[in-house]
Design brief:
With 752 residues, the chain is an alpha+beta fold. The protein has 19 helices and 38 strands. It is extended and about 130 Å long.
């Protein structure tokens, strides 16, 4: 192992064990947004979400087809004559490089002739007709992509030669290859100057087994940037790899070995990641496998949702969020064919409402009476036995299906819609081809094994919600019929969203009145569900999901509430713990809720307090006055507070709802006084809290409180002579006597 240490950076999160995720699609592209600003591309540690392709066994022409669509190569391997595995990234924004060029097989002279203003990032020498050719990728060595120096070597007879070359020239490796020419092993390398912006704590190693790579990565901070096959496996012998690792800041990265071709994109989707290196190899058993390095490719919402769900479940999980008639806001594993249990019953509800809207249930529509043979066993796998059979309206059956998650009611509706095959076909005819109904809801767990599961990818379940909300299937009146038989704010009020709204409102200058009104205007409908199957001694496995539509009340600048609709789903598939998919659902909408709350703040600014109240000091019996001056384009109301509690007019206070407060008799009313100023639109601001201090009376010898010291006061003092004090104990020594008489005589006359 060879290292080059210049700087150090943060440790990153990694996963190291391949999982058996299976999905279709080897050649795939992400659909995430692309950033618009440029960033240095010296190392592949940029994690701005972007589009990508992974090509396996593609021809030179096929690779160029994708390049012509605006993608550039970041990793390529020649696997056979005119057959390449390649990773491409969208050539825009942070990843733009106008000078990307590649050669499927070129001589040294051809590459050298193309290097003006460019540098190599990937080099794979190979033998062709007794000569050495190269598969190579070049990029512009200018602007943000420039490095102060770089070089390449090939035809080296030892790895030590490349290590010595990098040491003597202060370079660090970015690509290392082992190849054979004329039956002899040779090595090549591409390296860049390890100085300035290109400097990093780096290491590279030659010919390491997967187990050795795990040990290296565990022992050294940083992430893998290049993996190349050194020797193939087979016959019980493990393959080996050359690796390059650097320690630079990165949001997240992962590596997996032992993946098959179907798992490459499935794993990327599960992680919310994009591959940066895909290496085909033969394992010890002679099977073709892939070693893949991924970096984070999520946006803020996706990353946050992954952080919520990943540590809390062992299941395959994901989420999807889209504004109705607007952009996709989050898509984490959203095309995974998940078994979503009773969440699927929304399909039955939408189709039945559409049938009623089309007159297929007769003139009464959802009020048509049907025979429901079992209303007593909502959780069972329908067995055909009657129990408390009733005749009831279809809307009641829908309510049982959606709110009690009644499986017998679901089967009744499914049969009215033509059964599972008809429902699946109907979905496909409406552009929702990934949702399939295979088993009767409530009957996933068969005798000793699983029935064929239903599948409901989050993207497509949400698409059905959006169709229901946009008159694509029926008009608004029938849409309201659908929402009317579902759980949501009609049943629970703010319910599931209370904690999320409160968390997003924290720190915003919203009054309790505004926040309560926001919650009152908040609207949602949803359907959730979960299954569990257990076949001892195997542990119980669970499947579940929750999907719905949310109307979040935004406010315009003029203060008009303008709701925006969003559809969203979270799911957890085949795990021992799945509850997080339910608890995380409300959080999926957090950023949109925050934006809406901020619109309420913007539409109703807090009043400005121009003049704050000032502290007051008075004597017992005197009146204190506090004043505030506030400004707003709204009508203002006022409420004075003492120690945070609202005051009312009466014997002690006057003007409690005006800019000027009078404390009429301040004897026992010391404390902190402030004024809450509220605008007509609901915003408020509380003034500074200021202290009222009450001093003892100015004329203590005025025992009768008449305003002067005279005979009546003298009489009161003499009556208390020799006693233990009280008001007549003017010197405070505990006894009324000559000293007190002397003080009274000195004060004789009018007070003050």
């Amino acid at each position: 192992m060879h290292s080059s240490n210049v700087t150090s950076s943060n440790l990153v999160t990694r996963r190291r064990v391949a999982t058996s995720i299976v999905a279709s699609g080897v050649v795939a592209a992400s659909t995430l947004a692309v950033a618009s600003s440029a960033m240095a591309q010296i190392d592949p540690n940029v994690t701005t979400p972007t589009g990508y392709y992974v090509l396996l066994g593609a021809t030179e022409a096929q690779v160029n087809t994708y390049r012509a669509q605006g993608f550039r190569i970041i990793d390529i391997d020649r696997v056979a004559s005119n057959s390449f595995d390649a990773v491409l990234v969208q050539n825009t924004g942070d990843y733009a490089n106008s000078g990307e060029t590649w050669f499927a097989g070129a001589t040294e002279a051809t590459i050298t002739g193309a290097l003006a203003g460019k540098r190599l990032i990937d080099l794979q020498p190979f033998e062709s007709g007794g000569s050495t050719l190269h598969t190579a990728v070049l990029v512009s060595n200018t602007g943000d992509d420039a490095v102060p120096g770089w070089g390449w070597l090939y035809a080296q007879t030892s790895t030590a030669a490349i290590d010595t070359w990098t040491d003597n020239n202060n370079l660090r490796a970015i690509n290392l290859q082992r190849y054979t020419v004329g039956g002899s092993t040779r090595w090549s390398g591409v390296a860049i100057s390890n100085t300035g912006a290109a400097g990093a704590t780096g290491l590279w190693a030659w010919g390491k087994t997967p187990a050795q790579i795990v040990s290296i990565v565990n022992a050294n901070p940083g992430f893998l940037t290049d993996v190349e096959v050194a020797t193939q496996g087979g016959g019980g012998v493990q393959p080996t790899f050359n690796i390059v690792q650097i320690d630079k800041p990165i949001r997240g990265w992962w590596y997996y070995y032992g993946l098959d071709s179907t798992q490459i994109i499935a794993q990327a989707n599960a992680l919310g990641a994009r591959p940066i290196d895909v290496e085909r190899y033969t394992d010890a058993n002679g099977a073709t496998k892939f070693f893949v390095v991924y970096v984070d490719n999520t946006n803020t919402i996706e990353s946050r949702m992954r952080g919520l769900m990943d540590p809390a479940t062992d299941a395959d999980f994901g989420c999807y969020l889209k504004e109705v008639n607007g952009p996709v806001l989050a898509s984490l594993n959203a095309d995974f064919p998940a078994e979503i249990a009773s969440t699927m019953k929304f399909v039955h509800a939408v189709r039945e409402v559409q049938r009623a809207s089309q007159g297929l249930e007769g003139p009464l529509g959802l009020d048509a009476i049907v025979y429901n043979s079992d209303t007593m066993n909502p959780d069972e796998c329908p067995d055909g036995n009657s129990s408390n059979a009733v005749n009831e309206p279809i809307r009641t059956v829908l309510w049982r299906m959606l709110n009690q998650s009644d499986n017998n009611a679901t089967l009744l509706i499914a049969n009215r819609c033509g059964g599972n095959a008809a429902l699946t076909s109907w979905l496909g005819s409406n552009g929702i081809a990934g949702v399939t109904l295979n088993h009767t809801l409530g009957c996933l767990c068969g005798d000793g094994g699983l029935a064929t599961p239903n599948t409901g990818p989050a993207r497509e379940i949400c698409a059905l919600y959006e169709k229901a909300a946009t008159n694509a299937l029926f008009n608004t009146a029938w849409e309201d019929e659908l929402w009317g038989v579902m759980f949501g704010s009609n049943t629970f009020g703010i319910g599931r969203f209370d904690d999320t709204v409160d968390a997003q409102a924290a720190g915003l200058p919203l009054s309790s009145t505004q926040l309560n009104q926001f919650k009152a205007d908040f609207w949602y409908r949803y359907k959730d569900g979960g299954y569990g199957c257990s076949y001892p001694p195997a542990p119980q496995r669970l499947w579940g999901g929750i999907a719905g539509i949310v109307r979040i009340p935004f406010k315009s600048a003029s203060g008009v509430v303008t709701p925006r609709e969003f559809v969203g789903m979270t799911f957890a598939h085949d795990g021992a713990v799945i509850d997080v998919c339910y608890s995380a659902w409300a959080s999926l909408f957090a950023e949109q809720i925050r934006a809406a709350l901020e619109s309420w703040v913007s539409s109703c600014p807090q009043p400005n307090i121009l003049v704050q109240p000032q502290p007051e000091t008075v004597y017992e019996g005197e009146m204190a006055t506090f004043s505030v001056v506030a400004q707003s384009n709204q009508t203002l109301t006022y409420r004075w507070l003492r120690n945070g509690f609202a005051l009312s007019n009466g014997v002690q206070f006057n003007g409690t709802t005006t800019p000027n407060l009078q404390v009429l008799a301040a004897d026992y009313l010391e404390g902190q006084y402030s004024c809450r100023v509220t605008a007509a639109c609901g915003s408020e601001r509380v003034s500074n809290a200021v202290q009222l201090t009450v001093l003892p009376p100015l004329c203590p010898a005025d025992l009768d409180g008449s305003g002067d010291v005279g005979a009546a006061d003298l009489s009161m003092l003499l009556a208390a002579w020799g006693s233990n004090g009280g008001a007549a104990d003017l010197d405070g020594n505990g006894t009324v006597g000559a000293s007190d008489l002397s003080q009274l005589l000195v004060a004789w006359g009018a007070c003050g």
